[in-house]
UniProtKB/TrEMBL annotation:
The gene is petA. Its main location: membrane. The Rieske protein is a high potential 2Fe-2S protein. This is Ubiquinol-cytochrome c reductase iron-sulfur subunit. The chain crosses the membrane at residues 12-34. It is found in: Cell membrane. The main subunits of complex b-c1 are: cytochrome b, cytochrome c1 and the Rieske protein. Residues 84-188 form the Rieske domain. It comes from Shewanella morhuae. GO terms for molecular function: 2 iron, 2 sulfur cluster binding; metal ion binding; oxidoreductase activity; quinol-cytochrome-c reductase activity. It comes from the Bacteria. It is a single-pass membrane protein.
Length: 196
């Protein structure tokens, strides 16, 4: 054992230098790690609201857009379809949309803000298939109903307000996404009505 005096100055210097280098290393590791928690530009764009030009959509026509990686339908309903909707309430599982599959402003018999436009996420509430729009031949699926959506995967059927018929696998009505109208020809999907 040596009886040499301990150099406390050197010891403090080495301790401080080690702490500084260790702290810098921790920061160098922490910054990229914390940045990885933020969504990427691609993820932000995927969840961003989608502006849709509906000015040229003809009565009876369906257009598809993508919002949050899901298909969203915009259908311009005809007057005949709008007038037919209340006549088949007795065939529906949830005609009054008690199960909240839509924003408050779309909790009405047409499940929409404007009667002529139906906007819904185009995914069946059973197992996630995308139903087919049958504008003129839905009567083959449900007697007395002209237009609707038929899911080819397991046979679920929805009317032109996205309400599910009884006796099919789908348990809920189609989801109505948040949306608002900017003007008569433009709708923004992904933003609640009244929120700019």
């Amino acid at each position: 054992m040596s009886n040499a005096p301990v150099d406390t100055g050197r010891r403090r210097f080495l301790t401080a230098a080690t702490a500084v280098v260790g702290g810098a290393g921790a920061v160098a590791v922490a910054v990229p790690f914390i940045k990885s928690w933020n969504p990427s530009a691609k993820a932000k764009a995927a969840g961003a609201p989608v502006e849709v030009n509906i000015s040229k959509v003809e009565p009876g026509q369906l257009i598809r857009v993508e919002w949050r990686g899901k298909p969203v339908w915009v259908v311009r309903r005809t007057d005949a379809v709008i007038n037919e909707l209340p006549t088949h309430d007795g065939k529906l599982r949830d005609p009054a949309s008690v199960e909240m599959q839509q924003p408050d402003y779309a909790t009405n018999p047409l499940r929409s803000i404007k009667p002529e436009y139906f906007i819904a996420v185009g995914i069946c509430t059973h197992l996630g298939c995308s139903p087919t729009y049958l504008p003129d031949s839905f009567g083959e699926q449900v007697e007395g109903v002209t237009s609707g959506f038929f899911c080819p995967c397991h046979g679920s059927k929805f009317d032109m307000a996205g309400r599910v018929f009884q006796g099919v696998p789908a348990p809920l009505n189609l989801v109505i996404p948040p949306h608002q109208y900017v003007d008569d020809g433009t709708v923004i999907i992904g933003v609640d009505k009244g929120v700019a």
